[in-house]
Structure formats: structure tokens, C-alpha cells
Amino acid sequence: MLAKNLIGYQRICQLITTGRRRSKKGAYELRKDDLSTKMIGVIVLWIPGSAPCEAEAQWVADTFPSQGWIAVELHYESNDSLKLQNLFKLAKQFGLPLLASSDVHMHARGRRALQDTITAIKHKCTLAEAGFRLFQNGERHLRTLEALANTYPRHLLDESIRVASLCTFQLDELKYEYPHEVVPPGKTPSAWLRELTYQGVEWRWPEGASPKAIAQIETELSLIEELKYESYFLTVHDIVRFARSQNILCQGRGSAANSAVCFALGITELDPSRMSMLFERFISKERNEPPDIDVDFEHERREEVIQYIFNRYGRERAALTCVASTYHFAGAIRDVAKALGLPPDQVDALAKCCGAWSDRMPPPERLQEAGFDPGNKLIQMVLILTDQLVGFPRHLSQHPGGFVISEHPLSTLVPIENAAMADRTVIQWDKDDIDALGLMKVDVLALGMLSAVRRCLDLLRTHHRRDLTLATIPSEDPETYRMISRAETLGVFQIESRAQMAMLPRLKPKTFYDLVIEVAIVRPGPIVGDMVHPYLRRRNGEEKVTYPGDELRDVFERTLGVPLFQEQVMRLAIVAAGYSPGEADQLRRSMAAWKRHGGLEPHQIRLRQGMLERGYSEEFAERIFEQIKGFGSYGFPESHAASFALLTYASCWLKCHEPAAYACALINSWPMGFYSPDQVLQDARRHNIEIRPVDVTKSDWDCTLEYDGGAVPAIRLGFRMIRGFAENVGRRIEVVRAERAFSHIADLCMRADLDRRAQDLLADANALSGLAGHRHSARWEVAGVQESLPLFGEVIIAEEAVELPSPTIVENMKADYALTGTTLGAHPMSLLRAELIAIRAKSSRDFADLRHGQHIKVIGIVTGRQRPSTAAGVTFVTLEDEYGMVNVIVWRDLAERQRSALMHSRLLQVKGRYEDKAGVRHLIAGHLQDVSEMLDGLDVRSRDFH
Questions:
Q1: Do residues 383 and 336 make contact, with C-beta atoms less than 8 angstroms apart?
Q2: Distance, CA of 845 to CA of 841 (rounded, Å)
Q3: Strand order in the sheet with 250-253
Q4: Which 3 state secondary structure label does DSSP give 114?
Q5: Cα separations (Å) of 44 from 56, 66, 84, 171, 428?
Q6: Strands 293-298 and 318-326, how do they pair?
Q7: Do 598 and 629 contact (CB within 8 A), yes or no?
Q8: CA-CA distance, 263 to 257, in Å (whole number)?
Q9: SS3 state at 864
Q10: Are strands 98-101 and 68-73 parallel, antiparallel or unpaired?
Q11: For 674-820, CATH number?
């Protein structure tokens, strides 16, 4: 179907929506009666099969009078002449005109092998099994006019051109309107936004807003009214209002933090009048597109917000945007290898040669290491086709939270389909598409740290220790900053990675703005732009702070003359090169896109000329431009860094002053962050927090706090720690235990209605120790419990207890890790320490006594691997022993040579050079060895590449 005009486009969108919504994701279900209504503005092309059917031709002629054509496709196949002859007869018999069509599937004939492979992937079969689903030849490619003229009768080509000329629809004809529900009857959007904003002013500034803040609000309201964005702000305000009414923590971030109106409405938490914010980073006239507001919600409760939006506006008017997921190397090589008929074990081995994070062809030596012959023709074909497939669209997935909401049905703008997740619908456009067409998008995002902070505050409130909110957490606390400067930030927001931890002792944050810089500085933009070291040297007094001119002092003073933020680059362009604020925002957008699309060259000329005209040196202009190009590698906006820094500080304060509650909340909010529950618990134990085991007589589903009169509570592990244990079973145990305590295991099993699996998991996890003693006794008692029969009602049948020997330390440790992923007994490395001392392996405790540059050997449990984009191929490995953690840096060449040891070791031996620079201690790896056999089957797991 082709859209002649706007009405035709809308009919086609609605038809696609009908077929998609009727089916599960990835499928259509259209019926003939869906086409019985007049398809006004639509041209219908009927593409007959290999044997044209008169009944189908009759249906097309009857259903689409004067709208239907027969599309003739000729691809030098054996039956082309007969097909053309039959189609001429059908056209004459049913009064249907003919036109030429090509059914193009590839741009060039040489891509036939890839096209066949994609067909096999689509049908989930091998090429050998694909049969007639493959095309007869490679002619379904873009052909030249000369080739088409030699293939089709001239009048068919002329008809194709004529039909194409009938299709005049342009996407810019689409008219989008904001939803009306957000404005009360009798109010205009402008008046209602102003009223809500000034209500917020009274709330945000109870002692009165400053003239600067009021002036900023008035400037913003005027521009918002001029650009007719009032309903957008009101819609976001409504969503945030709902979340707060349900006690769901939320916080706006990104460029919206530049807006005083967003702050007054409660959308963001950062007062822009306190910071050097630039509103044009958020909205400008020259940008000619709606603003983009990102709001983070608790990750465990975001679904409530999503369903509120669907319920308020209906699925006809609200949907998530899509993401066009493309092939990366590991996924591509897996699909291609399957299509070419490799057995599953070889498919897995080949995919592992790439690694989940690699988009590079595996080198021959890695293939040989995995048991493949690099010269094998089939393997070579797999690699060639994989290289061609990388970057191709694979499927449509849903955006993490980008909502489009409209006054009229969205299906008049874009097709809608069902998402893979239940109760969600997705439009077939991504964020770039809707930006280009000016559609409103609200990002309803999930943030695990908000869940953790809310849980922590709830714990403090429940135990009557403190009644805090995010807003009332004490600010600028010296003790918190001292903890941060020691890099004791495991589990906090944004500054918990190894790279951030390495930066903290060098930067030594002492104020909130220092945290803003810390959040932003360990990013590709500042690093590639060579801004990090100059800033640190100036901060530490090793280099003089200079400014190229007094007028730029205001722009760079807070960052010691070094541009770190996108807003500073924009202000620089305004002050030093004569840009308008809107033009400066266009520069920012070009910065973000130049590596993919280019487009910075005009700005280079403009910036250079503008700076030279205003007296700046050519050297300064060139240096600034190189730094601007660095921002193309994800330079951070100051507003974004400041929004994140609020949560960074809050999480650090809670970890510093309420470490038990914070660790407990982190585990209850997992999965999130860089670290596993085991690492969080080991960190808590190193800070003298008592951890108590899972126990059916005391544990809830979540981990809880237990106070025994001391200053710091203990953490009681919850049933959630037991791998494979169902939440509903854990909650049921809580409920029946509240009625009365369990008298013995049989009593527990009957009252909590535990099936055999739940009983075995509790016994194996040592969660029955409060009723049966050690693991062996618990397993014996569970094995003797018989399910109560209806005949006996409340009668409980249990065998007599038998005295059994206690498990050994190693048996307990293995069971702990297998069932809960952690142990509260001896650390595994402590059992190996004597052996490690004998081979002169150092522990993390020894690092304080080592000299810089000393060559040492370390053995530790691998708890994490990270490979950030800032690190130019470097892998950071975290090893753990009974005393703490060791940070290992593995350069790219070593990682390639010893990939198996790097990627697959559970216990890793590292020989290398110890470095201690400004209190930042790590080991530069020179040789890696997998020594996992020393763990004797212990089930320890790392958390990699998060």
C-alpha cells in the first residue's frame, strides 16, 4: 500500500496498528474485512504469487476500484515470460492496471549470500533447510534504469512513474497536538502553568525567591508560551505529581535541571539559580524542537507510573518509543553460524571468541585456541558474513522509558504494536524520528539508586532512628567528604567504579560542586579532550590557573580555567566567538554527533574567526576546538552532573552515617550498580557491621536491621538471598510466623505450606538452624517430614531427631556460596593463606608496606571485570581476599594474549608491577594465570561489565 496523501498515510498507519495489536510482538494478523472500509487516499499494489489466482484478482478489483494495480516483478526467473503473459490476461479480464515493481532486498547483487543468510535467520533454520524460502537468484537488488528498461515493457515503467507522482504525502504534514487533560476547564495552558509555577515558588523558596530566580522564571515562561510548550511541562508535572502522591521517589535530570520552572514544579531537585546553568541548553528558539525532560523513578515502582500514563491517556494516545536494535559482533556471529549449520557447541565456542563487548573480528590465534581452523572455508564464510551483518537492524525493542502522548490517536501519526512485555505498547519510531517530527516525549526512566535510598530512609523511619527525606539529609558534611576522599565508595551512586575510586583520592572532594566535577570528569569527553590532568594539576597547586581573558573568567573560574562541561563550551562560543545562545546550542548538538555524521567544520571556521576578531590567539582557538571535539565522546552537561551529584551525596551521607541501613537497602534493591550482594556484605563486615544469617525464625523476605542496644544495628539476611527461593513463599513464612512462632520444622512446613523444593532450599541454605541446628540435621529432618493429608487435618508427622556430625568449614562455605552467593564464616582466601604465603603471594593488606614499582604476585577471587569506553581497551579487574580488594589493570595486548585467564578465572593469579600514586594503589598486570582449581569447586561469581 502506498499513501497518496495525509488521509492515506493515516489509514495505512491504522491498518498496521490493527494487525500488530491483534498479535503478539513480531507478528501480524490482518483480515480481509479490515480492508472492507474505504481506504481513501491509498494506492494498493497486488503482488501475485507464482500462480496468479483469479479469485484474488476479483477481490482486489471489487475491494479497491480505481485504487488497485497489479505489480509486475521480473527477476530473470524461469517463468518470467509465462508470468507476464498471465498477468496481462488478468489485467484485461478484471480491469486492473499493471506497473513495474522490483521487490528490492539488497543494494547490490554481491550481497546475495548475506540475503540468503538473513532469510535463514528469519525462519530460524539453516541455509540447507531453507529450500524454496530462498530466492532463485540474486536479482532482487537495486537496478539501473538501463537494466530496468531491458527487463520491463516500457509502458509498465511509465505507469510506475505516474503512480509515484500521485503520492504527494510528506511527513511534515503530520500535525501533533499535546493532550488536553492536564489543563482544568476554564484555564488556558499558559495561565495554568504560571499558576502552578508560582505555587511551586512558595514551596521551593518559603522565605521568598531571589529577584534573579524570579527573573529567570519569567524569561522561561515567556519562551515556553511563545513556543507553545506549556502542555508538555504540565504533562510532566502531572506524572511527577502522581509519583509523589504514591510515595515513589523521583527526580528529573539532564538538561531540564537548567530550568527554574522545572525546579518550581517539582520536576527537578536542583535550584538553577545556585548554579551557573544555561537555559538554552534545554530550550531555544533556534532549536525548533520540543524540550526533552528525563525523570528517574524507583526502578521497582516505575511500572506503577507507566501504567498510570496508559490509564490516564489510553493506549490509543500513549505509547513507548522504540529502539532499533542492531547486530553486534557476538550476536551476529551466533546467528550466522547457526544459519550456516554449525552445531550448537561450535556456535557457542565461536561466539565466545568474540566476547559480549567486542565488535572486532577474533584474531586467528583466538580461533585456534578455541579449536577452530582459521583456514577452514566454512569458518571464513561465517566471519565474512558476520562482518557484513554487524550494524544491521535486528529487531525493534522498547525504549527504556520514552513515552509519546498525544491529544488524538497515535495511530494517525505512526503505527503502534505490542511490546514483548505485557501491558505495554510501542510506536514504530525511535527518539530521533520523533525529534525530527516535533512529537512530545517524556522519559520515564528507572534508577535503582532511588529505590535503595527510599528503602534506606524507610528503614531509618521504621526503627525510629531518623525521619529524613532526600531534601533534609544534612548538606556539606565534612565526615562524608572525608569518606569520599578515601574512596570508600563501594555501592554509592556514580562514584563507585574503579576509575572513579582511582580519581577520588586525587581530587579529594570537599564541597558539593567538587562532587559535580567528580561525576563529570571520569567521562570520555574530558579525557579525550585532555582536560583531566590540567584540572588536577591546577587543583593541587602544581600549575597556575590562567584565563585567556577576563571576560572568560566567569565561564571557567569554577573549573579552574579548564572546560569540563558542555554548558561551558556553549558560553565560550557566546562570549569569545559571538554566537547567540541558540547557535551555541546548535554547536553542542554538532559536538555530540560529529563522530557519526561530521558537521563540525563550519563551527571550526566560525569559532576561529570569532575568537581571532576578539583578540584571542590562534593557538588558543585551535586548542579549544580540539577540546570541543573531545566532547563529541560524551561530554557531560553540568546540569546532568549536578542532578546526579545530589544522589551521589545523599548515598554517600547514608553510607557514612547509617552504614548498616544503607547496605541493607542496597541488597534489597539488587540487581543494581557495580557490585554483588556478597561484595556489599564483605564491605560492611570490613566496617565492623555484624551480618546475621538467613533464619526462618527471624528472617523476612527482605534483609532487615536488628538492634541489640549497640550504636550500629546488625543486618539480618532475608529469604531473597537464597537462590531460587520464591518471594511468595518467603512472604507466606512471614505471615504465619507473625501468628505464632514455629515449634519445629514439621510445624513450619505445614503452616507455611512448603513444597519439597522450598524445604530443601531452606535446609541447604542453613536457614533452618534456629529449629534444627546445623545443615546436616536440617536436611535429615526435612527428609523425614511427610506432607499432611486432609484426613489428619492439623496432625503433624515428623521423625525423631538423629544426632549427626556438623559440616566442616569447607562444606559450609561451599553450601553458603552455592545457595546464597556469600558466606558469613571464614573467607575462602583465609583457608588458602598459608599456601599463598608459601609461594610468596601478597595479600591486599600487604599493599600498605609495598614500594612503588615493586614486582609482586597476588592471588584473589575475581569479583568484577570492567572495560569502560574511556579506557582505550584497558580492562579493570577487581580481586578480593579476606582483607579487602586489589585493583588490577590489564592492558589491551595482555588481555588479547591471555584472554581465557582474564575472562574465565574465578581465582586469578596476577604477576605485575605495584603502583602507588597519590594514594591510588593498583597492580599493572604482566602475567595472568587461572588458578581456580585451588577453590575446589567453590561457586563464586563475578559481576562483569556493568
A1: no
A2: 12
A3: 250-253, 293-298, 441-447, 393-405, 318-326, 425-427, 416-418
A4: helix
A5: 13, 10, 19, 20, 22
A6: unpaired
A7: no
A8: 7
A9: strand
A10: parallel
A11: 1.10.150
What would the grid cell of residue 861 be? 577471587
- β-strands 907-917, 393-405: how paired? unpaired
Grouped pLDDT means (10 residues each) for the chain, 946 residues:
97 95 90 85 91 88 94 92 93 96 94 97 96 94 95 97 97 90 94 97 93 93 93 95 96 88 94 75 75 92 95 94 91 96 94 69 84 94 95 89 92 93 90 86 94 96 87 94 96 91 93 94 69 90 88 90 84 88 81 67 88 89 77 72 94 97 97 90 94 97 92 94 97 96 94 94 95 90 67 51 80 92 92 95 93 96 82 84 93 90 94 86 95 87 71
All three cell numbers of 838, joined, read 608459601
Rounded CA gap, 255 and 467, in Å? 31
DSSP letter for each residue of 342-369: --HHHHHHHHHHH-TT--SPPPHHHHHH
Phi/psi of residue 229, nearest 5 degrees: -105, 10
- Calpha distance 606→584 (Å, rounded): 11
Q: Let me know how long the chain is.
A: 946
- The residue written with cell numbers 550481497 in the block is 111
pLDDT at 787: 53
Nearest to 822 by CA among 858, 863, 779: 863
Cell numbers found for residue 800: 525423631
Say how far apart CA 224 and CA 203 lie, in whole Å: 22
Sorted by sequence, the CB contacts under 8 Å of residue 733 that are 6+ apart come out as 696, 719, 748, 752
Cis-peptide into 206, omega within 30 deg:
no
Q: Determine contact, residues 417/21, Cβ cutoff 8 Å.
A: yes
Phi-psi bin for 230: left (phi > 0), alpha (psi -120 to 50), beta? Answer: alpha
CATH H-level superfamily of 828-944 = Nucleic acid-binding proteins (2.40.50.140)
- Closest by CA to 745, choosing from 708, 695, 781, 697, is 781
From the number of C-beta atoms within 10 Å of its C-beta (0-12, 13-18, 19+), residue 186 rates as exposed
Q: Provide the 8-state DSSP code for 636.
A: B
Sheet holding 704-706, edge to edge: 691-692, 714-716, 704-706
Long-range contacts of 888-896 (CB under 8 A, 24+ apart): 888/858, 888/912, 888/922, 888/923, 888/925, 889/922, 889/923, 889/924, 889/925, 890/925, 890/928, 891/924, 891/925, 894/925, 894/926, 894/927, 894/928, 896/363, 896/366
Locate the domains of the chain by residue range: 2-102+143-171, 174-298, 328-391, 468-646, 674-820, 828-944
Render 550-608 in DSSP notation, one character per residue: GGGHHHHGGGTT---BHHHHHHHHHHHH---HHHHHHHHHHHHHHHHH---HHHHHHHH
- Count the helix, strand and coil residues of the chain and give each as a percent rounded to the nearest 5: 50, 15, 35
Tell me the sheet residues that pair with 250: 297
What is the DSSP pairing of strand 714-716 with strand 875-880?
unpaired
User: Exposed e or buried b for every residue in 26-56, given b needs 16+ CB within 10 A?
Assistant: eeeeeeeeebeeebebbbbbbebeeeeeeee
Q: What are phi and psi of 42, to 5 degrees?
A: -120, 140
Cell of 661: 541501613
**Residue 917 φ/ψ region, left for φ over 0, alpha for ψ in the -120 to 50 degree band, beta for the rest:** beta
CATH number belonging to the domain at 2-102+143-171, selected among 3.90.180.10, 2.102.10.10, 3.20.20.140, 3.40.50.150: 3.20.20.140
CA pair distance 452, 891, nearest whole angstrom: 34
User: Would you call 126 exposed, middle or buried from its count of C-beta atoms within 10 A (0-12, 13-18, 19+)?
Assistant: middle
Q: Residue 507's closest CA among 521, 488, 526, 523?
A: 521
DSSP 138-181: S--B---HHHHHTTS-HHHHHHHHHHHHH----GGG------ST
